[in-house]
Amino acid sequence: MAKCDEGYLCDVCGQPVERLFESDLYLRYVIGMLDPEVLHTTPERHTKCNPALAQFIVHEKFTPVECVGDFDKRNLDAAFVHQREQLVTRGYERLRELARLDLPIVDYPLPEFRGKFAR
């Protein structure tokens, strides 16, 4: 099967990333962590397969993920954790919203990150 026919497979678990709101790649894009120029060359993974970021999603439709080790949010500064939870949760909510919209990819990011990487 051609690579383009396989869909987007998770770089961690190898299973398909079937829904936009399951995508760590697009979560990082909408919260300004990833330049759109590298979306097509950056490995995909499920959000849950990146616990260092997923632990910051606080949403009733997302099963909490623990990040064991030095980057466990319970070991981090409370103000940083609060700020990160706000941002990453907003990004997750944006992905859920995008699944129902028909927008160009440049409009995916949260408002404050649109055009961040424009040259």
TrEMBL record:
Protein's recorded name: Uncharacterized protein
